[in-house]
Amino acid sequence: MKLSFRWYGPQDPVSLAYIRQIPSMHSIVTAVYDVPVGEVWSHESIAALKQDIEANGLHFDVIESVPVHEDIKLGLPTRDQYIANYCENIRRLGQAGVKVICYNFMPVFDWTRTQLEKELPDGSTALVYYVEDLKKMDPLTGELSLPGWDSSYAKEDLQRLFDLYKEVDEEKLWENLAYFLKAIIPVAEEAGVKMAIHPDDPPFSIFGLPRIINCEKSLDRFLKIVDSPYNGLTLCTGSLGSGSFNDIPYLVDKYAAMGRIHFMHIRNVKLLDDGSFEESAHLSSYGSLDMVAIVKALYKNGFDGYIRPDHGRMIWGETGKPGYGLYDRALGASYLTGIWETLSKA
Ligand code: DNO
């Protein structure tokens, strides 16, 4: 496995110089952030990222994300131009040495939480999702915002999108996803870039919008649409694990054995009785997931893809992007490499 860390570019309060000091750190996971969704990334922006990362002794080989334009998810006639742009991004990133591209197919909103700074008993703060609070949130105000979301929507855009999605049920979304995959995977094969879809977070429909990448059945269906190793998964333990119906070590074992996991997001979540969840420290005993069983499933299958510790809590007074501080993610990284080393010496 190759250990990686997400970095939001030169604006990120966490510097590459610090990230490289995390033992065993190999790769940086990043993206070009100053281009509207759907546009082609300039060669210069890609080269600048690569140069910064390599100057710090790290590898530029995972992109998260090349976002998918809503017109593609909606299946609008304009999708072909956006798909052509997407293919061009895959080619350009492949030329720059990128090995894996992470993306998702969630309508309108990416990962969703109801609170970003919930204080835990030990004084750290974490991201949480409380079912009762979500019911009170109105996505159409345009005021909700999360670090992973495209914040460029005005209120009117959101209303328009929600109206358009009234025509898109789960089956239609599957059709639109299949159309997209059939166009991009041959390009990814040629470019030598493995595509890795990120599951829906949380793994069920929210705000009445369809969500389809969320359980074993849907992952099986997804992988069959284009049966190529280039059509693979970002297996996010926290996202899939927020649904008590998902057995994470089993899923990791199954898809790693098939060679279809290219990227792992490993974090722990604590599931509450009513379907709510809290992000917790990585250590197994702090959440509902068995981290050793997860890493073991990877180890056993000779996993040689990328792993990142994913979100962390905010600890030691750090401030910054919710979920993406340095300290707790670094603790998570060391915990995961510790499990890996133990397995390798057992
Ligand atoms: C959250 C992230 C997601 C992820 C996208 C991939 O922290 O895991 O925002 O980057 O869903 O497209």
- Under CATH, the homologous superfamily reads Divalent-metal-dependent TIM barrel enzymes
Q: So how many helices?
A: 12
Total domain modules: 1
Q: Which hetero ligands occur in this complex?
A: D-mannose
Going by helix content, strand content and strand pairing, the class is alpha/beta
The shape, in one word, is globular
**Beta-strand percentage?**
15-25%
Average pLDDT works out at 95
> How big is the Rg?
19 Å
Q: What is the topology, as strand order, of the major beta sheet? A: 1-2-3-4-7-8-9-12
Per the CATH scheme, the topology name is: TIM Barrel
Helix-strand topology string:
EHEHEHHEEEHHHEHEHHEEEHEH
Gap from first CA to last CA: 17 Å
Instruction: Give the biggest beta sheet.
Output: 8 strands, parallel, barrel
CATH class division: Alpha Beta
CATH architecture: Alpha-Beta Barrel
Low-confidence stretches: none
The strand count comes to 12
